[in-house]
Amino acid sequence: MALVTLENVTYRYPLTETPVLKGIHLSVEEGEFVAIIGPNGAGKSTLCYAISGFIPHFFKGELSGSVRVAGREVRETALSEWVTRVGLVFQNPFSQISGAKYTVYEEIAFGLENLGIPPEEMKARVEETLELTGIRSLAERSPYSLSGGQQQRVALASILVMRPRVLVLDEPTSQLDPIGAREVFGVIRAMSQKGMTVILVEHKIEWIAAFADRVIALHEGEILMEGTPDEVLTHSDLPARGFGVSRYTQTARAAAQQGLWPDSLPLPVTLEQAVEGFKTRNSSAP
Ligand SMILES: Nc1ncnc2c1ncn2[C@@H]1O[C@H](COP(=O)(O)OP(=O)(O)O)[C@@H](O)[C@H]1O
Ligand SMILES: [Mg+2]
């Protein structure tokens, strides 16, 4: 049975005319790693809010259809309870900081405090999370003194410490340099391998290709297509609709038009797949 189920979800923000999500059907299995791609304004962040309960509990407006996690319906569940099922790492890490705490350590403990977790367990879980996300050295810093990338890790830590069943991440590496991004993706992958269900909005196509079980392409509030990373990320409809495409796919597509990519292989997404394809082509060329 699916862990997350959206049925015919349509949502319109307050004081606006047209819905931003239109008839979304989506189901995610326990332990699955699903990536969401789409051009700016497609509704990716809004979809994250709908899954994580911020719609309808924080953003009002008009929601129709059903959002369920483990059989519970979002509109019948308080946000304080929903956050223990679904954790959302916001696109802007600054939005995640509570404003109530002086140190990163306290900030990460904050959600557990609200749940009434005993101090001993709280300490153990915060320590473990600092280690996991590689931010032990930031523990005594003020959350407001951090760089965007550091804030992004603290935001991730403050969600992971809650041990949600579903982890929703909205462009969690947008503020990070390539090394920081690799580390954060490493943490996300480790959580996925431990069995956590992950829903990731991300523009870094090559990471999606390496990590995701399934890719959903969102376009103007509707699911345009879904499938395996190879199927979706190399689909010829995407570039004209404003989706980001991997440079290796672009290169191989141009090469294919000149007969320089092997017919037997799908277009590549990652560097490794591209190298493999061009090697195959060269070794079989007359
Ligand atoms: N609070 C809001 N009120 C009204 N419209 C909004 C609000 N937030 C986002 N929108 C609009 O909803 C659409 C989808 O936005 P968003 O979900 O942020 O897209 P994405 O994350 O894919 O860039 C955009 O047209 C945006 O302007
Ligand atoms: Mg967004």
Description:
The protein has 286 residues and is of the alpha/beta class. The chain is built from eleven helices and ten strands. The strands form two sheets. The protein has a six-stranded mixed β-sheet, with helices on both faces. Strands 2-1-4-5 form a four-stranded antiparallel β-sheet, with helices on one face. A hairpin with a 2-residue loop joins strand 9 and strand 10 (222-227). The structure holds adenosine-5'-diphosphate and magnesium ion.
How far do the termini sit from each other?
Answer: 52 Å
Approximate helicity band = 25-40%
**Structural class assignment:** alpha/beta
Number of domains: 3
As a whole number of angstroms, the C-alpha radius of gyration is: 20 Å
Strand order of the largest sheet: 6-7-8-3-9-10
- Per DSSP E runs of 2 or more residues, the count of β-strands stands at 10
Amount of beta strand: 15-25%
Quick one: CATH superfamily of the largest domain? P-loop containing nucleotide triphosphate hydrolases
CATH fold label of the largest domain: Rossmann fold
* Bound ligand species: adenosine-5'-diphosphate, magnesium ion
Largest sheet: number of strands, sense, barrel closure: 6 strands, mixed
Number of helices: 11
Shape: globular
Low-confidence stretches: none
- CATH class of the largest domain reads Alpha Beta
Mean pLDDT: 94
* N-to-C SSE string, H for helix and E for strand: EEEHHEEHEHHHEHEHEEHHH
Please name the CATH architecture of the largest domain.
3-Layer(aba) Sandwich
